[in-house]
């Protein structure tokens, strides 16, 4: 990444939808927010929903209102797709309205050069978009077989914490989203910023394969 790219504020859109997993969303979100605060203007983070109506997080513990819907969201540089419990993700795959609005928006953005970063079961959401084709990908261990079944043109990695394919980043389960977000901050702005965030988080990073 050149100096001009480093100095540019990156728009990071976080997809939210009914029953989204809390840590899948908030782990990477907090990494990018802390990076923005520390480095002053590195990331502009916002949430995007199918509509601007409130949705419930996993187990209906709280409702959250997206900042934008897919029609009004600022142009993203990166879209983060958190996961949900496997049953909910599979419901979304069969929901034509969700596919024709939310996933079509993500597909259009991806093919216009936007980076897509999925967390946990979030990679399953892309199974009907073609985005995963011919890439190495991963997901939560509970859904690896299903991801492989739905994406026969992809190579499913079963021992990776996250997989970086350039414009596409997929992660293993839940907390792996934090590791991948830290990795991306390092890729964008250097390891010193990562180490500052890790210290601030009091986070014990794992040794992992990329």
TrEMBL record:
Classification via Pfam families: DJ-1_PfpI
Domain of life, per lineage: Bacteria
GO biological process: regulation of DNA-templated transcription
Residues in DJ-1/PfpI domain copies: 11-184
Residue stretches in coiled coil: none
InterPro entries per the UniProt record, alphabetical: Class_I_gatase-like, DJ-1/PfpI, INH-QAR
SUPFAM superfamilies per the UniProt record, alphabetical: Class I glutamine amidotransferase-like
Name recorded for this polypeptide: DJ-1/PfpI family protein
Naturally occurring in which organism (per UniProt): Chryseobacterium jejuense
Lineage: Bacteria, Pseudomonadati, Bacteroidota, Flavobacteriia, Flavobacteriales
